[in-house]
Serine hydrolase
Amino acid sequence: MPRKGSNRVIVSGRDADGASAASSRADAVPGRSRHAAVPGGKHRTTDSPENFARGFACLGELALNGVQVSARATDLSTGRVLFSVDDHVSMPTASVGKVLLLIEVAARLNDAEFGLATMLERSGADAVSDSGVWQHLQTSRLGVADLAALVGATSDNLATNVLIRAVGLHSVRARTEQLGLSRTALLDLVRDTRGPDDAPQLSVGSAKELTWLFTALARGEIVNAETSARVIGWLSLNTDLSLVASAFGLDPLAHRESDHGLLMVNKTGTTTGVRSEVGILRGPRAGVTYAVSMVFDDARHMTRLAVLDGMRSVGADLLEYVH
């Protein structure tokens, strides 16, 4: 369960017109949103032209130089679209799709046979390298909640594979479809190498659906309030603030409490030629839900650095909006 203060970021209050957040739930479902008519392409929909100008310009420059860009930001309270860039496009999102696994795990924690303390053991078939710390620990068995916390904190690949084996990838897909997501999915286990018979990506997602998903988590509308709060709690542990969130000035290892009036939860995805982040940022003045994904030729280090600069620029605009 989240520690004190871990889910304070999710309180979105009431819409600007005084209606409860729950009353706009139907409008927030992908494909039925009040913003569903927004066409593809690049749009800056803020009332003030200064808002998001830097990030929008950076994303446009990256797109002109061959980077595939998809992004969206919405006001957390009202749902108003602040800007969008090809937000309907389904993009590779690397580890961002692990959020869907965490939702399925959190939803099952009330089952008698799958509680918080249920112990799961890693096996040779689960082994995978890269992100995460469990592969470096001596213990071979951990509780379900501990594994979910590792996924939230370090995007732990080994913990991810063990949890997928426990709940079944088919169950994660069924839950995803039940949520109404058609362009966002966790496609596979985490693999060190992907063969011709494997899914080409770990996950895919559209910025439009991802911002809806995180807004719904913030409002306690994914499965139920308890499930949503658990997922938000695990995500609040995330130590990767290297992308959009690099502009927020928060401590990567400790940002579950308000810091200069800021509260943030996020999930990132990183692999060769892919950088993706979805999150919620709340400040003294406003709150936003955002998603940014980029696919690029990773042969040149300068291209990667330009992508990171672009994501940070979006983050700087988000910070200005909420602070």
The chain has one domain: 8-322. The mean pLDDT is 87. The two ends are 29 Å apart (CA to CA). Residues 50 and 225 are 36 Å apart (CA to CA).
